[in-house]
Amino acid sequence: MTVTVATLGFPRIGPKRELKTALERYWSGKTDQQALLDVAADLRARTWALQAALGADHVPSNDFSLYDQVLDTSVLVGAIPALYGRTSGPVALDTYFAMARGSQGATSEDATCGPGCGHAHSLETGVPAQEMTKWFDTNYHYLAPEVTRDQTFALSSTKPIDEFLEAKAQGVHTRPVLLGPVTFLKLAKTKAEGFSPLSLLSALLPVYVEVLKTLASVGADWVQIDEPCLALDLTDFERGELRRAYGALTHAAPGLRLMLASYFGGYGDNLSTAVNLPVAGLHLDLVRAPEELATALAASPESLVLSLGVIDGRNIWRADLPALLDRLDSVVAQRAPDRIILAPSCSLLHSPIDLALETAIDPEVRQWLAFAVQKIEELAILAKALNQGRSAVAAELEASRAAAQARRTSPKIHDPAVAARLASVEARMAQRNAHFGRRRALQIARLDLPAFPTTTIGSFPQTEDVRKARSAHGKGQLTDAAYETFLQAETERAIRWQEEVGLDVLVHGEFERNDMVQYFGEQLSGFAFTKYAWVQSYGSRCVRPPILFGDVSRPKAMTVEWWTYAQKLTEKPVKGMLTGPVTILNWSFVRDDIPRSQSCRQIALAIRDEVVDLEAAGAKIIQIDEAALREGLPLRRKDWQTYLDWAVESFRLTASGVSDATQIHTHMCYSEFNDIIAAIGAMDADVISIETARSKMELLDAFVSYDYPAEIGPGVYDIHSPRVPSVQEMSELLTAAQQRLSAGQLWVNPDCGLKTRKWPETKAALVNMVAAARQARSVQA
Q: Which residues are catalytic?
């Protein structure tokens, strides 16, 4: 009878982003399906073996995905929209990727085909991708399931079974992971009026029962079912549906034990429901909700296995293991050791893979960190201490204690000058001088733009040549002068092409920038950076979040020189391009020793200095991207206002140091905006651009009842897909936007930045976008 260790999921991209490389080679036609599948199989094998070697007793399977685990679940249960041409049978890999990315020539399939068939299945016209949005309050994007009122479900993939057997053949007995049926339906979208996808639960459950029976028949003894919806506000009806679902699933296969997992927050008022569901185990996120441990112990039957998420799965700070053991000792005293599993708070998908790869980071900062590999090691140390006594791991515990103490007392963390400036902030500093109506009149006169002005969000394609030049410069193989000359040439080409195509407001293209957050973090104090600490954002898109470890300030101007160079090349206005404080905060690994709001205000003051300097250099339009504003929203409504108050204030603090004639833009990424529309209005930006193409302008529904005062650019094409939409498609979206907003409010732009796209598709799409804008002007005239 011992305490054991589990992981809820592990990063799937590979230590050197091997999956990204394999995916992009396949998409570009450089390799075939089998080559891609071979890379995937190798990554899975290495990941299972690694976790077992590190001390994980419960190793997950089916946590791997070629693109997204929610999309995998849609494929598993046969929720394939008719748009993608499938009628029955296995889902072809190209259909899977068409759902994820869209296709210029839509994929179909033969019922006899499956992944790796090697056949080309093509129709004459393209199909768009499914809608993509943020996974709870993370920067991970998932593909929203699409269902209809008469939706039917059928087992259409054997992936969970195949990967369990694959691991078993390699000597690793895994705990398969499934996305729970209630959460799946709550994430689903439908175009049917007055219809709740959750009403499809009875139709969906038999597929889950079939999967569980099959897993049991091939030897699985535990299955982890993720229901993160339990961290949300639920109705009594939804709680009842959870009870109904698990009443059915628990009896699917005798002897198969279910571990119910929720994360990203506590259960709150759903805890009573969770501890009384007929499951064998329950996972608790004790990083986000440490107070629930005592309640769960008291409220749950002693037979219930408790998975204690004590190591932070979403941040990179090394744990204080002796302090954790002080809490865990009392748990072991109350519950049998074999009823306790130690785990990360959530899947390690949101963590970098291995700190051992980072040899160049500041050694002092490095000793404060733990990535996925180190987090499993920490769990193994805790388990050994509980099972064998602290003396068995005395050296490891002392190292952990010393690192925690060193971080608390390091002079690198606190800057008195930053604290003094923050204390001097006055309310008026977060207010523009005049209301929007007055500002708009001044900006119209100054900018002289046509109706439906066209622009892009900021970045242009980062070609192989750009990446090679950046790499060569970083390695010292390209001099500073040569690199600057290269970037100037790229910038000038982008400016000339934008003039040629007829865009109204230009951008410099951001060729000098590696990432919209990292680029600024590298020039601010208080940040550290890594080389291999990649985290998946969606599909093959990976980011390296900066590590915000200390107080933040701006030593010098960061973007003024490149903006000035670009503006001298053209008579048209060039936007100054900045990343906002809330996005820098939410897309970084953030210090946990002060409130997030305090760190955000520090960043806001630093970016404010850059805004003021850009205006002084002559910028008439400055865009301050807050792509991550919505994703930082707490999961419970009772906590929303506190977050929105300081997030909106931070943006306004950044943007309010300029004159009324200077136009402030902001941009927000895939998110549900309708429920925070008043806060978006309170940001008081002059122009906001948002991603709306995949949702077919559904995200503008809030503007029907909310009288939005400013101007808005709803994205008219999806940049996360290589597909080039037609002029007609974009025109139809603009027409849809005018049903919610006046023509005078509308700008025309892509959904997001174009960094990840290629130039041929970018040019074709923007030519069509400009044509759609001109068509809208002619109709208005």
A: 720
